[in-house]
Amino acid sequence: MKLGIAQLNLTVGDIAGNAAKLLAAANEAHAAGAALLLTPEMSICGYPAEDLVLRSDFTAACAAAVEKLAAGAPPELALIVGYPERSDDGLFNAAALLRGGRVETVYRKHHLPNYSVFDEQRVFDRGDASCVFACGGLNFGLNICGDIWEPGPATRALEAGADWLLVPNASPYHLNKARERLAVARSRLVEAGLPIIYANLVGGQDELVFDGASFALNTDGEVVAQCPAWQEGLFYLELAGDTCSGSQHALPGEEAAVYDALVLAVRDYFGKNGFKGVHLGLSGGIDSALTLAIAADAIGPDKVHAVMMPSDYTASISVEDSRDMVKRLGVRYSEIAIKPIFDSFVAQLAGEFAGLAADTTEENLQARTRGTLLMALSNKFGTLVLTTGNKSEMAAGYATLYGDMAGGFAVLKDVAKTRVYRLANYRNSLSAVDGFQVIPQRIIDRPPSAELRPDQTDQDSLPPYDVLDAILEAYVERDLSARDIVAQGFDAAIVRRVIRMVDLAEYKRRQAPPGPRITPRNFGKDRRYPITSKYRPEGDLP
């Protein structure tokens, strides 16, 4: 028999649009000779719908869409769609089998993840019954996403007579996630002995980005079909007994995957929220240069407007490199000097600041002037302001609230500075065949600087980025103690200082715009720390 995987980019809350996309996929799969089509988790309403599922009007609209889809889909096709099912006994993350013009049966998710970016136990009730159905001479059992991350549901499907395990998913991307999913699927194969067909969502949803990369495993744990990452489409498998064959698409390497994740996240946040264009501040530094390249790749250079806002401290090469890069990309470019505005601020505050030396206050005023200008452009033209700060800066608080943090989407929010350099080199490698580099090499080679005072560099305020990022990875992403970090060979004074900077900057991060998650622990849904706290993790250092 032929089975289709619909690896689709769906939108939370667009019930009618998602249903139309599912119907089109069902018709296409039927025309291609498929007997069964598997779609992602929560495909009717998008994932994660969060507290929308608590609204009775929302779940009623989803249920009506499922019924309408069942009536409109080819009756011979077995179609699996996901939706929030509200019934007398609870609210469930469910998958329905549509066939013959009706909802034939429904499976309710057993294991509700309640960690990392997931809080399904907050909104859903647990299911406990298996669901097995016949199609094309084979018996198929259903598990939903988190069900295969725990033992039990796969075995119950086997005991109910399943020959194959179908797993609709909305599994968000982070570094090395494909490898992790494969290991989990193989552990369920060891548990239950059932070959597995895993269908995943693709697309961006706020700070989450879904990579697709659906696959099939045979009983030996071999990947017998691999769908591409970051690509929407229908992909077909041929099943015979417990064997399966399908196309094999190579998955991207680490930097390629991260870059693709950022591009897709920007494209979908921009498109799904209906913005007309993008504005961003171009400084001549590597962070804004990489953000500009991602934006142009995501939505096209004709929709991107870069703004250089020089001050008295802006180096001439920053302006030169910015002009050079926008020509290479073909984006719109403006220069707006901030000196007159900044001088006006200083003059108006002179009485209040009398007798006080200039300090970071005046530096922050420059950043806030730039933020105000970008937001004015956003208001006037209906554009999205992309902020350009990276994870290292956000972690250490090396960012200005209402200044360079002002905007709608923080593209590099979960990208450490050391990875920013790797991504810049990766993006340049894509066009190096023609000897043409999108990001001028001088931008990559220059020491990073905020250019808010004379001869300033980032390393005046921060440890070297290779040291800083290693400590941040240990403290933020792995929750290691200060002692454990020092035991890895880091200087105790530097560790104490970095941890203190991270903790003091929590209030800033709470006010930062969302940005795509690409590590296992981002600032946002993943890491939830109190702003007001007397606990001092660095206090156990000698």
From TrEMBL:
Asked if the keyword Nucleotide-binding belongs to this entry, the reply reads yes
Q: What is its EC number?
A: 6.3.5.1
Q: Where does L-glutamine bind?
A: Y115, S171, K177
Identify the residues that bind deamido-NAD(+).
N364, E393, K508
Q: Which reaction does it catalyse?
A: deamido-NAD(+) + L-glutamine + ATP + H2O = L-glutamate + AMP + diphosphate + NAD(+) + H(+)
Tell me which residues make up the CN hydrolase domain.
1-241
Q: Which GO terms describe its cellular component?
A: cytoplasm
Q: Which UniProt keywords apply?
A: ATP-binding, Ligase, NAD, Nucleotide-binding
The active site lies at E41, K109, C145
- Residues engaged in binding ATP: G281, L282, S283, G284, G285, I286, D287, S288, T388
Compositional bias segments (type: Basic and acidic residues): 523-542
Write one Gene Ontology MF term.
NAD+ synthase (glutamine-hydrolyzing) activity
Keyword 4Fe-4S included in the entry's annotation: no
- InterPro entries recorded: C-N_Hydrolase, C-N_Hydrolase_sf, Gln-dep_NAD_synthase, NAD/GMP_synthase, NAD_synthase, Rossmann-like_a/b/a_fold
Show the segment(s) annotated as Disordered. Answer: 511-542
Q: Name one GO biological process term.
A: NAD+ biosynthetic process
Which biological pathway? Cofactor biosynthesis; NAD(+) biosynthesis; NAD(+) from deamido-NAD(+) (L-Gln route): step 1/1
NCBIfam families to which the protein is assigned, alphabetical: nadE, PRK13981.1
User: What does the UniProt record say this protein does?
Assistant: Catalyzes the ATP-dependent amidation of deamido-NAD to form NAD. Uses L-glutamine as a nitrogen source.
The entry's family comment says:
In the C-terminal section; belongs to the NAD synthetase family. Belongs to the NAD synthetase family.
What is the protein name given in its UniProt record? Glutamine-dependent NAD(+) synthetase
Which species is this record about? Thiobacillus denitrificans
Provide the organism lineage as a comma list: Bacteria, Pseudomonadati, Pseudomonadota, Betaproteobacteria, Nitrosomonadales
